[in-house]
Each structure stands twice: as structure tokens, then as C-alpha cells.
Here is the input.
Amino acid sequence: MAQPALVAAPMEWREEDARLAALIATGILDSPPEPTFDAITRLAAEYFHADTVLLGFADQSRIWIKSYWGEPVRELPRTRSIFDMVLATNGPVVVPDVSQHPNFEGRRLAVRRLQVNSFASVPVRSHDGLILGALTIVGCHPRRGMALDELRMLESLADMAASQLELRRLRHVLEERRPVPVPVAPPAYRGWPTWTDLRLALDQRQFVLHYQPEIELATHKIVGLEALIRWQHPERGLLAPGEFIQAAEETRMTLPIGDWALAEVCNQIQRWNQDGFGHNSLRVCVNLSAQQFSREGLADHVEALLTRSGISSRQLGLEMTESSLMNDRETALDVLGSLRRLGVSLLMDDFGTGYSSLNHLHAFPFDVLKIDRSFVSRMTEGQQPLQIVRTIIELARVMGMDVVAEGIETREQHDLLRDMGCRYGQGYLYARPITAECISKLLCNSTLAISEPEPAEAAD
Here is the structure.
């Protein structure tokens, strides 16, 4: 069998639109576990003596695992995944020995904690032939190749999953009493950029990450970085988030863009480690949108990214605002608990701007509070705003949490925060958000000089 490319060639976005629309029409992504799918993975495990079997369906950036046998998995990143290999070949992929496969260069393939040494994966298609997912059997040891009758057996099991998908789609049609929906793109945002603009920007890698240092106030040593997204538009130049984030939320592009940023941060940490800048201790933080945070499989997704990049969990920080916790408190607690068990840092961003900060602080397992820039900027205006910041710092100390003050722009703000016991800060006083290449030069010195910046521009 011909060896497929590890990374799928860029798919024409209209073809991907049709595939995603067909996936949405099944209603499978947000569905509870189904006994039929569990029966399929169990049969596959027994027939092939597999260590793990995964039945998953892929949206733009993730593989939602709807059933598994063996290693428990809920969600995996799509980029450089087995699913993308299946999509690239438009058919089965069989790799009896990962170490001998040219695309893996002698390395084993990691799926969460499971080290994969062999696998076979076949597509699960829609009624009109679009690949919506894959049924994959995984082995922890190299195995012989797959005979034709074995491959046909695996494809038959995938066909059973496809039949269940079609039943779901038809059930939705009957319940809604309307014709089968025609695949269409998500509704366009009224203005610029449109969904098409954002989608093309993601496909053509126009989004970039800039990084702003977090420093220890007493020593000016760089202790971490915050990743901030920018859009390098071919005609409009470098765009700040304020110019496209609302459109991303309106057009449901927040998830794929956010997932790209999370994966890119992990890859960049890996590069800094290899170059000797990270020393396996530098923490890089990335902001999670409410949509990213609200899904139960987030911890699996993060764990897979950590395993694939080979970085330590303590090098990754995840920032979320209070508003992202408000919709579903129970899910928020479960997701935060799962992330905490991975060992990643959890940061509450913009603390103090919500309605029930103290309640959330007691309930959720955050490691770090980030004092919103609006409080920092008013510290020198009187005793009341200064007392608010002092209270936040003391509250964090009592609860055993670190504090990072955002938006520090003057030496006076720096000195006040340091004297009040705030250990860490970030802002234009130290450095603006800059490229990864510029950050590498700063990391050579590890400390930052303080200089009064020009008046602040738009928020990061």
C-alpha cells in the first residue's frame, strides 16, 4: 500500500465547507455517548486485538472522539493527525510499523499517554461520500501488515458507523419537518471581515502570534510570556485583535482560530527549548475563548498537544476571563479540574471586571490572578483605586496565588505595585508585544531594561 503524506494538502475551502455542513447535519458533535458506536469500537478491538480503538469525527481543528475502547480519549488536535492522513489519501491508511514509516523519521506517534507503534484507519463517510470521521485501531507494538480481508472487515465496521450517522441525519430531518439542509457556509458577519476572509486567513497562515514578556518586578527578570494574536493581512497590514475578534465570534471562527493559536504556542515553546532559551521552565500563556473553554474534551486536546510537542505542562499557561465561566458552572469545574491535573497553569484574566469574582476565586482552582489594566492605570489617581489593587494582591496572597499586574506603563506604577507585594507584571514599560524572533533576542539577556513608553495604543 502506498505511503500517504503525513500532512494533508490544503483542501479547497468550498470542499471543506461541504464536509463540515454534512457533519453538522448529523448532529453528532454535541451528542451524548451512543451504545451503537461503543459496540463498533468493542468489536474492532476484539477482532484485531488492538490496544486502543478510536471512532472520531473531525471539524475544522479538532477530532471529537465519540467512542473509544482502551485508552480514554475525548478530543484530539486535527493538525498532523491520522484523520488528516485519511483525508489526504481519500481512503484507508495502514502503518504496521511507525518507526519504519518515512513521515515519522523513526519516532513513535503519541496519542495522549499512549505511544503508538502501529495503526490502521479507515474513513467514515456521509451518505454522499464526504469523509466525516475515521475508525482507527492502534497498537503499542509494531505488527504485520493488514491482509485484504482484515481491511475489508475494518471498512465494514466503519460502514456501520456511517449508517448510524445517516440515521441520525434523517431523524433530524423528520423531527424538524423540513427538507434535507443544503450545505452552506456559516452566516456572514455584517461588515468586514467576513467568514470567508477569516477562513482564508487561517488557511493561508496569515494569523501570527506576538509575545509580551511577564517580568519579576524586583529583578526585571523575564519569567513568562503572553501570546497575543495578530492578523498579517496582505493588503491592510498588521491588524490588532480588536479589528477582527468580534467578527470571529459572530461567524463561529473563534474555535478554529483559538485552536490554531494554542497549537502554535506549544510548537513555539518546543523551538525555544531546542534553542536553549526556554530551559524547560519558561511559561507561555495563551488566552482561551469562551467557546474553547466550554467543551469537556479540552483537557484531552491540550494533553495531546503537550505530548506531540514534547514540552512540559508547567510551560503552558491558559488564561480565561470570568465571563467564560459564567454559562455552565458544572462544566467549568470539570474542565478546570482536568486541566489542573495535567499540570498546566490556570490564570484568571481581567480579574475584578466581572460580577462575582470572589465567588469564582473560591470555587475554581486558579494559580494566578491578572489584575486588569483598568485598575493599574488608575492607581495614581487617589486612595480608592490604589486600595482596590492592594486588596486584590492581599486576597491572592491569602489564597496562595500569584499575581500579574497588566498594563504597567510608568515607573511610578511599577514601584507602587512592587512595594505592595505584587511579584509580577507586564506592560509597555518593559516591552510591547513582539515577534518570536525578537523574544529570542530578549531571552539571551533574560532581564529587561525599564524605559518610559510612548502613550499607550489600542488594547492588545
About this structure: Confidence is low (pLDDT under 50) at residues 1-11, 179-185. The first helix runs from residue 13 to 26. The longest strand covers residues 222-233. Residues 299 and 338 are 6 Å apart (CA to CA).
